Hints:
It contains eight helices and no strands. By secondary structure, it is mainly alpha-helical. It has one domain (13-210). Helix 3 runs antiparallel to helix 4, helix 3 runs parallel beside helix 5 and helix 5 packs parallel to helix 7 (184-190). The chain is elongated and about 70 Å long. 28% of the residues are buried.
Amino acid sequence: MFKKYSDEGLPTNRIEGLSDGVFGIAMTLLIFKIDVPDVILHGNINDQLAKKLFDMLPQFENYFLSFILLGIYWIRHQLQFKHIKEADRNLLWINIFFLVFVGLLPFSTGILMKYTGLEVAQFLYSLNLLFIGLALAVHWRYASKDYRLINKDLPKDYIKASSLLIYSVPVVFLVCCLIALFSPRASLTFMYLIPIMFAVAKFFEKRRKKI
Length: 211
């Protein structure tokens, strides 16, 4: 008789290792989407370079925003695994789809850098971020539902607050997708709400712990 093995109770360290690697590569690739500007080697080269760099400000903004948003996703992913004590095959696949969209962000950021101000470019970028947010929300929902894979002593209030915060992210990016169809600049600006949301949540979390 063959012994029956279960895919329940899998360790999480290899999931975290793979995720860290994908995030590290994706965040590094972002800077390669910015090309060093060329200048004509006659006339006032300083003025030419200054103008070229000024014209590249939207690209630097896109790089900065993408890096910060990936950083936020990485932090939330790490915080989830602080409370997820084990994994199963379903969680593995949810995490893989999450990483699929993380790995795609350098491409959508590159499109946005090259075609800044175009509705299609901004919509694609917003949609990419939406799918990352949805995958991370599903990840937490699956792990935390009925304490399926998380620590049993985790307070319900914490689970509820964390869920509310992580579920709000896809909503923001869904709004960004819709706004992108009419005003790419407004859509990009609206994304700054995400870092603000997490900063405010962190502030109130620290304040609650002091009480």
